[in-house]
Specification:
Belongs to the universal stress protein A family. This protein is of the alpha/beta class. The protein has helices at 15-22, 49-68, 83-93, 113-124, 159-174, 187-190, 198-217, 233-244, 267-274, and strands at 4-8, 32-39, 73-80, 98-102, 129-132, 151-154, 178-186, 223-231, 248-252, 278-282. It has two domains: 4-137, HUPs (Rossmann fold); 151-282, HUPs (Rossmann fold, 3-Layer(aba) Sandwich), CATH 3.40.50. The chain has a ten-stranded mixed β-sheet with strand order 3-2-1-4-5-10-9-6-7-8, with helices on both faces. Helix 1 links the parallel strand 1 (4-8) and strand 2 (32-39). Helix 3 packs across helix 4 and helix 8 packs parallel to helix 9. The chain is globular and about 65 Å long. The relative contact order is 0.14.
């Protein structure tokens, strides 16, 4: 499924945890990892570049050793250039099927990753992007980071959500044992003029979710839950993630509310920015 992945290396308190969580991707077929540290020389004062490079090299060495101890084939590199362009170029040229980025908001290379750079990658990404969030678990619990134990699939039944569901199906085939599917009836679209049809909408969407569920159950031993709620899609999804302690969210970008690419589907943008869970974003069909 994700045979070869590109990991955006960083120096942060969440770095070790990100690498630990990457180990769980073996379940999804990962065999090779490309560790890439990318920085823009224009953002760094003269004379500091060599010092940073030595720090980057030491960090990459530690991360590479950790992954090699888990029997991954690992290559590492330091590249200077435009972050967005280099990440997407590398991923394409190296035949990667997934880009992995740590989810901490502040890093040594600047408060950039979630302030702009990760989103630059997402806006232009042609590949799935996994944002790994720092966990609040204890060090003992983190010895085994299993983000694929329970997958949440929020769907608006758009074409791009269907693309994401194809990935969910592949994850189930690979061994994911629990999936929860969530659809939120958008109160801003329904209330007040269509509120009288809410029961009708729920019945239609319940049937849609049941069709998804039947597909997953046909694949083998899998626990599947269906949920429908009413409210703000972003708020409802975030609340569900916290209440159920969801480790991983899988969702498509450019859903039914998509207007311009910069908004990244709006809901998926907000979830990737604010969710306590890790988020796997699947790009839809771009025109």
């Amino acid at each position: 499924m994700f045979d070869k992945i590109l990991i955006v290396s960083e120096i942060s308190t969440a770095s070790a945890e990100m690498i630990k969580c990457v180990e769980d991707l073996r379940k999804l077929g990962t065999k090779e990892c490309l560790l890439a540290q990318i920085f823009n020389p224009g953002d760094i004062e003269a004379g500091v570049s060599d010092y940073l490079r030595s720090i980057f090299e030491e960090n990459l060495k530690k991360q590479k050793e950790t992954l090699e101890n888990e029997d991954y084939k690992v290559e590492s590199m330091i590249i200077s250039g435009n972050f967005k362009n280099e990440i997407n170029r590398l991923a394409t040229e190296e035949g990667c099927s997934l880009i992995v980025v740590g989810g901490e908001k502040h890093t040594l290379v600047g408060a950039l990753l979630f302030g702009g750079i990760a989103y630059d990658v997402l806006y232009g990404a042609k590949l799935p992007v996994l944002l790994i969030r720092p966990s609040k678990k204890s060090k003992l619990e983190l010895e085994k980071c299993q983000i694929t134990d329970h997958v949440l699939f929020p769907t608006d039944f758009s074409d791009n959500a269907d693309v994401a569901f194809d990935y969910v199906k592949d994850m189930v085939k690979a061994g994911v044992s629990k999936v929860t599917m969530l659809h939120v009836q958008d109160q801003f679209m329904i209330n007040p003029y269509l509120l009288h049809r809410l029961v009708e909408f729920n019945e239609v969407d319940k049937e849609r979710l049941q069709n998804y569920k039947d597909e997953l159950l046909a694949m083998g031993k899998i626990e599947v839950d269906m949920r429908i709620s009413f409210g703000s899609p972003t708020s409802e999804i975030l609340s569900f993630i916290d209440a159920e302690k969801i480790p991983l969210v899988v969702m498509g970008t450019q859903g039914r509310g998509y207007i311009k690419e910069v908004f990244l589907g709006s809901v998926s943008h907000n979830i990737s920015r604010h969710a306590s869970a890790s988020v796997l974003l699947i790009p839809g069909h771009r025109k």
